[in-house]
Amino acid sequence: MKTLYDVQQLLEKFGIVVYVGKRIWDIEVMAMELDHLHEARLVSDKQFINAKLILTKEHRYEEHRQNNNHRA
């Protein structure tokens, strides 16, 4: 698992499709859904940690992108 798309594919294996309409919100909802799957022991610790790292990276990227767009 290396990309946000990979995390989406993992969630879809459990019937979870996230589309809120804004990418940063999608990432936040995906993180919450992933937390629920991990609490239910449906994903391994390794999958969970890897996916959370990807989501954190993507969330920071979106925050940075949004902050730069507001300054322009």
From TrEMBL:
It comes from the Bacteria. InterPro entries: YqgQ-like, YqgQ-like_sf. It holds the Pfam family YqgQ-like. This is DUF910 family protein.
